[in-house]
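Annotated sample (chain length 281).
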Amino acid sequence: MASLITAPHLSRESKEMAGRFDGKVVWITGASSGIGEALVRAFSQEGARVVLSARRETELQRVAATCPGPPGNLLVLPLDLDRAADFPARARQIEDHFGPVDILINNGGIGQRGAVVETLLEVDRRIMETNYFGTIALTKVVLPGMIARRSGSIVVISSLMGYLDTPFRSAYAASKHALQGYFDCLRAEVAGDNVDVVMVCPGFVRTEISRHALTPTGEKHNRMDQAQERGISPEKCAARTLEAIAARRREVLVGGIEVLAVPIKRFLPGLYARIVRRVRR
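Output written by the structure step:
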């Protein structure tokens, strides 16, 4: 059930920053932690009307309670990306409350830690169902309205893994590769409809994704990877994302030195292949 959150009034600094997304209706999935949580705060600070979605309602309430946005500008709307049949009703709830969605942030997803030979097929399917099919199903719900209004932004928080291959991430990489191809096609289709498609490809960000990643049998990994722990902050990733949306960028790579792996793979594929063979669990 959706719930309206009353948050503290904007500070003077927040009011000065408001403008780029003032009054925009922004729907964010995976909003209960990590990059999604940081995006909620960033958009709220800039005056947007933000819809927070994820499975864990208590965590959504926690995030909403810490936002700097004005009263009435936050809507908690629990959502499971594996239940696409619920999406049209959720979109209607948003439209009834705030109006149509201006910006959809497809951020929800799950990670993976497991060798191909050990991973159950049902785990591969679950990752694809959430990361890929859940994302495109939600996009299909809001896209027709954006095209009709000739206005809107579809944003996908993908990953450098949309371009790269790393051991023990096979299904996760496959889901991100699929998103890259799908939304590149969509961008070309809506080029004349004034609808932006923005791909954000983070590298290592200090989030809980490695803890929640699925093992070969579908259990939680329950460990923070060292590279993840040394990554950039979710707030920095969120700031870069807002910049990309405002600038109507097609794609942005976000992270530290690991972003160099993308051009290395493209121009020096042999070197890249030798590097990734050294990766261990």
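Annotation: Residues 121-149 form the longest helix (29 residues).
Annotation: The CA atoms of residues 1 and 126 lie 25 Å apart.
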